[in-house]
Amino acid sequence: MTLLECREKLGWTAKRAYTFLGLSPQTYRKYEEADEELMQSARYQEYQSKLSSELTKNYIIDSTTDDFAFLRERHAYFIDKSLLIKEIIETGQTSILLARPRRFGKSLNLSMIAHFFDQSSNPRLFDGLAICQEESIVQQYQNQFPVIFLTLKDVEGASFDLFQEQLADAISFAIAKFPEVLSSDKVEEVRRLTLKRCLDKKGSIGDLKTSLLTLCASLQAHYGKRAVLLVDEYDAPLQKASEQDYYDEALDLISGLLSAAMKSNPSLERGILTGCLRISKESVFTGLNNVSVYTLYDARFQSFFGFTEGEVKRLLLDYHLSEKAEEVRRYYDGYPALQGNLYCPFDLMHYVSDHIADKNAKPGYYWMNTSENEIIHALLRLAQNNTRDELDRLILGEPVKKSVNFRMTYRDLYADPDNVYSVLVASGYLVPKKQEEDFMHLVIPNEEVRYIFKTQFQKWIEERAGEEGKEGTLLRLLLQGQLKEATKNFSSFLWDTIGIHDYSRPEAQREAFYHGLLLGVLGANRDKRYKVYSNREGGNGFLDIALLDVEANKGAIIECKYAGDGDFDSSAKKALGQIRANRYDEFFYGYPSVAHIGASFYRKACLFIEEN
Question: Which side of the chain, N or C, has fewer Cβ within a 10 Å radius?
Fold first, then answer.
């Protein structure tokens, strides 16, 4: 294989190839255009071998880390986003917020940026990456600055004290990278004492607020260079605080910390924040009004977060999974960009890792265990009937028209159900299909997220079933034979909870769905007096639900049917016939009073009838 063939198969530019081989453009061009005689030379064979080895490398897939150096040192598969560094430098902005959905590569990109600027990092980590072709940027910026890296993704707590303790841990970890500053005679003693208190996690709230500013100033005093400050997931603590009762205190502390460090800080070379929500200049970080904000839907930086169509195609090709392209598109694609859609990188790397071992593995729902799914649950808890209808339409693939506020704060989240839609867009659970004046037509981006909505909807219904059943109203009505009231009671519950997507599921699954929902309501009140059984053997088969009132010595057998044509009476009578034919009441052998109840369901209504 010739040099040209190797390069084209790798998908590299000529510049990337000659940089990788350590050649000048002229020398590389000579070898790429070599005649037969030159192609036989030892030097040509050496260069060809190096490029060929890149084709045959068995790059591991590591979907568990966002540490750039760790990935590069292990020769793990890495999709080159290094030109993000050039784009950041060329904006000319000192302070930038890159707002992206969770799991969209923010932490890995920030780690890459840190290793590029950091004066103590290994420059070889970038060998072969596109940024190395930008010679003036490499000479001026690579490994030239002290870098402060602060991650706030794990700062949370059930109380403000725990929150403050975890923030102090994160700041202490960032300061610990620079022990030389704590003993430097170039740094003012008052600053060294502040940093020492923060390092020992004994700093006051005032110390914490000024800690990053103090560290920047101390680094400049010691090294004679301004610092690069990187803060990952700046808003994660605020999301956690909004779910507790200390949001204002948390906001004051985070706001003070970042405003001091990133506004008018003469010791700051660059400040980069990543997070899910953009900064609301009206109500959050009012002192931090100099930050340039770029979201997923801004053209600048768009292709550097998430995987592009071309990157996904190459990833699948490299691992012999090209035939999975359509499946990957349905499950993980759907985030609109200027040129095609973007895919969630967290999903893609996990998917490929799973399918290396088993090509026939089913697509995974990799977001399912992430804490951000609580946002959907919050919307359901706040929702009125019209909001639940909107969620139904989304699950069924239809758009909903909403005004989206990208300046939403977490304090506003629970004020109105419509506010949650803005957070769902920022978090990547919904995407705009089209813009119409001040409104966006929102849709669920892919099958993975659709599954999360369905699962959260089901979880909420189960919780509501438990709450509904605690009073035991339906249980007592059925055991007492008050079936008209029982019909009204459960039909009202169905109307308030289930959606179109529940009763439009395959017909074979509908009966089991209603059976499970009824069982959830009835089972919530089981105790020493009331017993509830399901799918127990009785007579010649397995009954659906059996109820027992131990004190009154009464029982009831309920058989569930789905009235596919809307004929409740016919379906309920069919259920009664099944109870008789299979002699289910033998389950209550010895009980003097056992009622036979036929239950039929259709959409958001039901009917209970008893055999005369």
Answer: C
